[in-house]
Each structure stands twice: as structure tokens, then as C-alpha cells.
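Whiteboard transcription, Tuesday session. T.W. wrote the C-alpha cells on the left side:
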């Protein structure tokens, strides 16, 4: 998957401060987004495994 350089740099900074890999940070951000989406839209269903 290709991402914009600016987005990559932001992720790189997050990984440094959180001491996590990029994939761990991306998983966490997706999970948080889906949780927020589920709170906003009660009928929203997230995939069973992320």
C-alpha cells in the first residue's frame, strides 16, 4: 500500500513516541476510528477481526 509522504512522516513520529511499529499504530488508529463510528451510528458493524 502506498501512502503520502506527509502521512508516512506523521506515522513515523507516532511510532517513535509510542515505541510501536507502524502496523501497530495503524491498527490502533483504525480500531479507534471504528469505535467512534460505532458510537455515532448504532447500525454500524465493524469487521469481526482487525
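and on the right, the sequence the group agreed on:
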Amino acid at each position: 500500500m502506498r501512502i503520502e509522504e506527509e502521512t508516512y512522516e506523521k506515522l513515523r513520529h507516532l511510532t517513535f513516541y509510542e515505541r510501536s511499529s507502524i502496523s501497530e499504530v495503524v491498527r490502533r488508529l483504525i480500531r479507534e476510528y471504528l469505535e467512534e463510528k460505532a458510537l455515532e451510528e448504532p447500525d454500524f458493524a465493524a469487521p469481526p477481526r482487525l
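Someone added at the bottom: The chain has two helices and no strands.
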